[in-house]
Known about the structure:
Layout: E1 6-12, H1 16-32, E2 36-41, H2 47-56, E3 62-66, H3 73-87, E4 92-95, E5 100-102, H4 104-113, E6 120-124, E7 134-136, H5 139-146, E8 156-159, H6 160-163, H7 169-176, H8 185-194, E9 202-206, E10 212-214, H9 228-242, H10 250-260, H11 266-274, H12 280-285, H13 298-306, H14 317-334, E11 339-343, H15 347-358, E12 365-368, E13 377-378, E14 381-385, E15 396-400, H16 404-416, E16 424-426
Parallel strand pairs: 1-2, 1-4, 2-3, 6-9, 11-12, 11-15, 12-14, 15-16
Antiparallel strand pairs: 4-8, 5-10, 6-8, 7-9, 13-14
Amino acid sequence: MGDMKLAICIPTYNRADMLEETLVKSLEKYAQRGWDLYIYDSSTDGSTKIIVEKYMKKYPRLFYRHIDSSVHSNLKVYTIFEDFGRLQEYEYIWVCTDSFTWSEKLLDTVKNNLDLNYDLLLVNYRDVERIGTKVFCDYNELFINCAWHMTYYGATIYNVKTMLQEVPWEYLKARYCIPERINFSHIAFCFEKICTLPQFTAKHLSFQPENLCISPIKRNTSSWRNDAIYIFCICWPSTIMALPECYHDKKLAIRKHGINSKMFLENNLILFREDGIYTYDVYKKYKKKWKDLTNLSNLKLEVIALLPAKWVWILQFNYFYKSKRLEKRIAKFATKYSHIYLYGCGKKAATYIQYLKKENMGFKGFLVTSLQEGKTTFMNKDVKEFHTDILSDPDMGLILALGKRNTQEVTNMIKETGIKPKCGIFVE
């Protein structure tokens, strides 16, 4: 098959800006490795199609498929599985979300494992149990350790010849594509299939979190969040309990999601409480289920639910205090300069922008070390490439909105210029 070994498939719906950001950051990486990218779009307008067609002119290995907007995301995934299983043009397919981009290191590791003929490759960028890189030959062991992580699009790469052939799609749709299970029907497909294989191997690839970049635009487009408690209190347990009896310790697999993903740990429930998603009525409704979903005590769950949303922050005072202190430092810095730029276009930059907005402060735009083709705007502001003449502008305030490693790289780069900055530079 040569360079036709892997196809990456992204289902998307009404998130044209986010998808374009992903394309800009990923297309060249995929092209260099000889991988094809398919966009399965069910948007209600033509904006996503226009963007994809624009990039198709330069990247002939980018393809567009339209799906009716009424089709559920998970049914789009089943459509992808059926399409690629029938055509058998690739050895592997990788279904990814439209909001993730991967590091070069992660992609190289995936590429190096495509010749080893595993049934599954698991891409784990949050290996909280420190499994490490490991081969699983027991499907029940994989189920207990990894089912919780495999809920995410992008976590699993499928072998077309072993995983997508002779699949009872009508049975799977009837059993799992029902309201209380459809959100995890892709998990059900996977574990229904692997327990029928005469031999089974999956390689778990462990990575540090920095090998994944989540679009900061995502925080404003995650509509599922309002339904998260129902999805993980009802749909997740229902799907897992419906799997074949050959899977043991189903309750453990269910509970691991609430804990390992941090969905039902204290900090996340506090955020849910602040947003009015977790209430006392919700606590009471699922009172008998919480013990199967989290390691928090019922007392702690009740306290969080009873506190007024505007006061719930006192349960995480230290975090709140640090955030408020940082917010004030950034605002104080910004008052000193007439031209404010943020260095970086990621999650931290989006957070800092919120701090500035709270203080009714504006900013000019963003700076990056190297401007990517097509990436000239971010959150409706200009993105410019860093130049040393910026350092000589005393009216310039530069806020480094980067992680620790990238902050160090940028500060080292500035030192290496030999220029004594006249601009202001803010470092967290």
